[in-house]
Amino acid sequence: MAIAALILWLLTAAGGFVMLGTWIAKGGARQPSSSHLPAPVIFGHFLLAAAGLVVWIVYLVLDNDTLAWVAFVVLLPVALLGLAMLLRWLPVYRARTATESAEPAERHFPVAIVAGHGVLAVATVVLVLLTALGVGGN
């Protein structure tokens, strides 16, 4: 189960990289006033998720149950930031016509990537929790 969590975490990260790259390429970092997603939230989400992934890899190497719980605890604010960004992105996605002076960078996010990232993220959190709880054994 721990390896499955790692695989899902990596797939989730791949989707996150696509969205982060799109956001940066479309001017999200250069034109923060046009984006509905604040840069500190985006980069905080990214950095916490990356830190949690590193902790998870160290957990896999050392097989220290405390590290599994640390990774899970790190995932909680990652999930909350992700949910906050989703809730801010939804109105941008629904607004088909660009009524704003500058089009938000996040309008260019592929819907399939957003959905896949979210589903994989939820599955990752569940698998990390189950692994930390010792469900499924080693």
The main pleated sheet reads as: none
What is the distance, rounded to the nearest whole angstrom, between the alpha carbons of the first and last residues?
8 Å
What is the number of helices? 4
Q: Determine the mean pLDDT.
A: 92
What's the total count of β strands?
Answer: 0
The topology string of helices and strands comes to HHHH
Compute the gyration radius: what is it? 16 Å
Amount of helix: over 70%
How many structurally independent domains? 1
Low-confidence stretches: none
Strand content: under 5%
Shape: elongated
Structural class estimated from helices and strands: mainly alpha
3D architecture notes:
The protein has helices at 2-25, 39-62, 65-94, 111-133. The chain has 138 residues and is mainly alpha-helical. It has one domain (2-133). The chain starts with a helix and ends in a 5-residue tail after the last helix. The relative contact order is 0.21. The model has no long low-confidence stretch (mean pLDDT 92).
Protein topology:
Layout: H1 2-25, H2 39-62, H3 65-94, H4 111-133
Keywords:
73% helix; 138 residues; 4 helices; mainly alpha; single chain
In short:
This protein has 138 residues and is an all-alpha fold. The chain contains four helices and no strands. It has one domain.
